[in-house]
Amino acid sequence: MKNLRVAVIGCGVIGPLHLECFKQLDYVDIAWACDLIPERAKGAAEKFGAARWTVDAAEVFADPEVQAVSICTDHATHADLAIAALEAGKDVLCEKALAQNRMNLGRMLEAAKRHPERIFGGVFQHRFDPVNRELRALIAEGLLGTLLTAGIQLRCFRSHAYYDADDWRGTWEYEGGSALINQAIHYIDQLLWLTGGAESAVAMIGNLTHRNVIETEDTAAAVLKLRCGALGVIEATASSHLNWESNLSFHGDQGAIDIRDDKPLKVDFRDKAVEAAVKTRLDEAVAPKPAAVGKAYYGTGHLAQIADFAEAVRDRRPPFVTAESAAETLRTVFDIYDSARLGQSFR
User: pTM of the predicted model, to two decimals?
Assistant: First the structure.
């Protein structure tokens, strides 16, 4: 069987991690590295062993030997690239956020409906983290009892220079938001995936320390009505003195679990035998090492997700994280923004 031939479009921040992950799969060949900056595309091709490089994604889509593409560009370009790839007969893996607004998200999903034969996945790599899979199992088994509240906190720092470095960052038109749609979206996805999704949102957003730099939010808070009946709480800021700290909290009438930076922080249950068993399961599930490429808080899930996508392309099956599933999380982010703008619950 011939190796799967893939291309990575966008070789800036997250693209090299996709290239490294594909490189580690012995049944995958990297056909193209594509970036608008020639030096970046050429450098990525040389570093990761891509056969060719280009500044024009149309060249990638025109190559009949390319079977799949990873889209790792800025939010506003995702829709056009994904649609072009699908129309050209390529399978697609698209980084978060799938799109910067509802219109482009809808365009992408309509293109996918026109091409049901194509594999289309969205990146939410933390669904592959062992600790999150164990958490999902614990909640599904009902060990927490009736789930009462579930929440995420993300406290991180993004400097003025970070936003000034790229024109698209911190804009409603091109990024679609800021702290929520970029930094916090992975944790929002974890909250929704672990609990079964949200029905509605009430929220407020603010720009507290970047007023003359970005037009979007650097801080946000929201309350969700979750489909399981519990209430969800989201707190996120990119203005913290902390470089990166994440917290997930799940509280039921029989037990509570807090996870900080992907490790168990608190496990407290009425039944101490259950508590001991849960502690053991979570301790065994903690991921051993961060990814070798990219930032530590990316976690280890990218390799697992990219391997799953490549296998889905090879086996012609849906990926573990479909584009529609990834879109559901993005819709909740849009609900939060709309609630904050309108001053009312949305959806």
Answer: 0.94
